[in-house]
Design goal:
The complex is a heterodimer of chains A (461) and B (311). With 461 residues, chain A is an alpha+beta fold. Chain A is 54% helix and 18% strand. In chain A, strand 1 (30-32) and strand 2 form a beta hairpin. Chain A is elongated, with a radius of gyration of 30 Å. Chain B is 69% helix and 8% strand. In chain B, strands 2-3-1-4 form a 4-stranded antiparallel beta sheet. Classes of the chains: A alpha+beta (461), B alpha+beta (311).
Chain lengths: 461, 311
């Protein structure tokens, strides 16, 4: 066996070991230094039940939409959704004007929609009770304020607020001085030293409150809170009498813009409407999961058996290669992680067929060469060489189709199409590796140690 | 050696026999606006419920919906005893209470298995983009084929023949959808579209395998006639085609169709038939068309038809 084959064998063994490490249930994950990764099988809505919603910018169709504004809206929706306390919620931009929200495990579509559609709430919060450092440490975390506890905000759903209280970093309830309703104008400016800062103007009512408060609280922290999440904790430098203020901080241009957007619109930089909603009950999801797993297992077993009976020795080698292939592909699904949907499982099974196709092409070629009187070693070599162009061209054709499907699925928020194409795509790519590296090295290993001359028994000729 | 190409016009006829009735069916559905398009494309709502101890009739359910001010109601019962109710888009207020209303009306526990609602604008957009996706896929694949076969004479023919055969497969699948919608109430939804695009992808995969053999043999057997050469290539790849398609992929799909649950059944059936058609068309449509093209046989179609058929 050539030296190259030995190297390949070692690589295969390493890849396989890694794949098994990722695939085993309750895999401990990888935690090296700052690199942390846990491996989970992420199941789609159609398998565990849940809610999927597609939101669209509620503006006339030909209005251009700023990418930054859409990103900000996506971030805000994500914040709200996180309040639902689901572990695998996903919020993603789809195309230029849409956002997909996926909430696996959510059983109540009404609650989910209420949370997504709630108007975001901007508050100026008094943090004079804690030190500047303590306040700074609260940035990006949720806090409790005294605004909205009463009947002032009937639209805020009660449940999500309750579900997050347990995880608040600080149990104190802060006082809200005023809300975004009093804000008139917000801009990004630069200071004399070139620092980005956010300048704002208040309504006359707001200016009065602000003037009183800032005058009494110099050197205290006035926190800016959106949807109960602390965005920034500026310190009051001096009284602001005319209702015009500046928020300074170590902002990059982008951060300053984002803050301005959040302040300006209090909530969403772009109005959103729900254009599509899909709910799968947990019962249907579980039934589908069980049935498709059983179907997959049955299909897989039949195919493995067929390969063994029809192609004998090479068939057995291909079976080993296919099982390794399945492990690697599944490991990739868990590593990325890819959300497995029902069509996704179908895509995976189809790619298994594609992986076998490569093997079958090679074996058929090999048999032809053997029939024409070539030696075993020669036939194995030639089988590979001759089958390669058609394996390459046919798989590239499939990869092209998958890419177009993936593009189509991700642009239109058609997650089932996306799920199918991504599993098929990854599967086809791994199948190429499986056929040209794994099967080949294993075949070389086997034929090298193969002594029998009874070809009809071992190769089915 | 089996002479497949000699009977090529019989195979063409067989394909037309399957495709034409299906397309006529589809055309008449389209003319009467009864195309079985799912809410993915038309917009609307779909509610699938299971009643613990009630079996309301379709008419009752339609009546209940109409009382709530919802039109366009169609009810279907599934093999697992659940009800699929399709209607125009439900208003927010109606959506919230529909399950409760159903439970009250029939005095039974109601389990919501699935609820989907698609706005009409997105439905239209998905339809046109889907058509674009298919067209772009076909075009790029044809270009790739032409590129991959650049070494052989008339490389472009291989791409075009692959596309013709691909349309054949698409037509077979559409035919199946038309028949399925009448017999089993199938709907054309985005899952169907996914299946269709997959058929396109795998259809090309099959053609490449047969064409690749022709490409290779062109260099080896320079003195054979093109027809004999193609026939030889088809026969050589027959084993692979049958084993890959029928024994492996089709087995997987059959298992999915039989045991994979309601949601996947239609999808698996479409793939099953579509991929079979893909294999069939690479042997009996794509390669023979190459030969027809090489011999410019259409010039003889109306003169000595009986001779060409047995050539």
């Amino acid at each position: 066996m050539s030296q190259r084959s030995y190297y390949l064998l070692i690589i295969i063994a390493l890849v396989l070991a890694l794949a098994i490490y990722i695939v085993i249930p309750n895999s401990p994950g990888i935690h090296v230094g700052s690199f942390n990764k846990d491996f989970i099988t992420r199941l789609g809505l159609d398998l565990v039940g849940g809610v999927q919603a597609l939101l669209e910018a509620d503006l006339p169709a030909n209005t251009p939409i700023e990418a930054g504004a859409m990103d900000a809206a996506t971030g805000i929706v994500e914040n709200r959704v996180n309040g639902l306390g689901l572990t695998e919620a996903m919020v993603q931009k789809a195309g230029e004007r849409r956002i997909v929200v996926e909430l696996p495990g959510e059983t109540d579509p009404e609650r989910a929609l209420a949370t997504i559609q709630q108007t975001g709430l901007l508050e100026f919060v008094d943090m004079s009770t804690i030190s500047q450092n303590e306040a700074f440490n609260l940035v990006e975390s949720k806090i409790r304020t005294d605004f909205g506890q009463s009947s002032q905000l009937p639209t805020t759903p009660v449940t999500p607020t309750q579900s997050i209280t347990s995880t608040l970093p600080i149990s104190q309830t802060f006082h809200t001085i005023m809300t975004g309703a009093d804000l008139k104008n917000v801009n990004v400016t630069t200071s004399q030293t070139g620092q980005y800062q956010v300048a704002f103007t208040l309504s006359s009512n707001g200016a009065k409150i602000f003037s009183d408060f800032t005058g009494a609280h110099i050197n205290d922290v006035l926190a800016i809170v959106v949807d109960k999440k602390v965005i920034s904790t500026p310190t009051i430098q001096g009284a602001i009498p005319n209702g015009e203020g500046v928020i300074t901080g170590k902002f990059t241009s982008e951060e300053a813009n984002n803050l301005a957007v959040q302040l300006r619109y209090g909530s969403l930089p772009i109005p959103l409407k729900v254009i599509e909603i899909r709910t799968v009950g947990p019962t249907l999801g579980q039934e589908s999961l069980q049935m498709s797993l059983r179907a997959g297992l049955i299909g897989f077993s039949i195919v493995i058996l067929f390969m063994l009976l029809y192609y004998r020795l090479p068939g057995a080698v291909a079976d080993v290669a296919i099982i390794i292939y399945a492990l690697i592909t599944f490991a990739i699904f868990r590593f990325i992680p890819i959300t497995l949907t029902l069509p996704g499982i179908a895509g995976f099974l189809l790619s298994t067929g594609s992986a076998l196709d490569a093997n079958i092409l090679i074996f058929e070629r090999m048999k032809e060469e053997m029939r024409s009187g070539k030696t075993l070693r020669q036939s194995v070599d030639l089988g590979w060489k001759r089958a390669w162009p058609s394996i390459r061209d046919s798989n590239i054709a499939t990869i092209i189709t998958c890419s177009i499907l993936f593009w189509f699925g991700s642009t239109y928020g058609a997650t089932i199409v996306k799920g199918f194409s991504i599993t098929l795509l990854l599967g086809v790519i791994v199948s190429l590796f499986s056929a040209i590296v794994i099967t080949r090295v294993l075949m070389e290993l086997v034929t090298r140690n193969f002594k029998s001359k009874n070809y009809s028994k071992w190769f089915g000729i | 050696m089996i002479n497949i190409l000699g009977k090529r016009y019989y195979f063409f006829a067989l394909s037309l026999l399957i495709i034409i009735p299906g397309l006529i069916l589809l055309g008449s559905m389209s003319a009467t606006k009864k195309l079985p398009l799912a809410i993915d494309f038309t917009g609307g709502s779909l509610l699938e419920v299971r009643f613990a101890n009630a079996t309301p009739s379709d008419i009752d359910l339609i009546g209940l919906y109409n009382n709530l001010g919802v039109g366009d109601v169609k009810v279907q019962t599934t093999s697992t005893g659940s009800y699929v109710i399709r209607s125009s888009v439900l208003e927010d207020s109606t959506r919230a209470k529909i399950a409760d209303e159903l439970g009250k009306e029939y005095n039974s526990e109601v389990t919501v298995l699935r609820f989907e609602s698609v706005g009409p604008t997105i439905g239209r957009e998905v339809t046109s983009r889907a058509a674009q996706a298919v067209a772009v896929a076909a075009l790029i694949v044809a270009l790739y084929m032409t590129f991959a076969f650049r070494g052989v004479p008339h490389a472009i023919r291989y791409g075009i023949c692959a596309i013709i055969a691909m349309f054949h497969d698409v037509c077979v699948v559409l035919s199946l959808a038309a028949i399925g919608s009448i017999l089993w109430g199938w709907q054309i939804d985005s899952l169907f579209l996914t299946a269709l695009l997959t058929v396109i992808g795998f259809s090309v995969q099959d053609k490449v395998v047969v064409f690749d053999r022709i490409r290779e043999n062109t260099g080896i057997y320079r003195r054979l006639s093109f027809e004999t050469l193609v026939n030889h290539s088809i026969v050589q790849t027959l084993g692979r085609s049958l084993n890959t398609q029928l024994m492996t992929v089709e087995f997987m799909l059959l298992a999915l169709a039989l045991f994979g649950g309601v949601t996947l059944r239609e999808f698996a059936m479409v793939l099953l038939v579509g991929l079979f058609s893909g294999t069939y068309s690479s042997i009996f449509i794509a390669a023979p068309i190459l030969v027809v093209w090489e011999g410019r046989e259409w010039t003889r179609w109306f003169h000595r038809r009986e001779n060409t058929a047995s050539a």
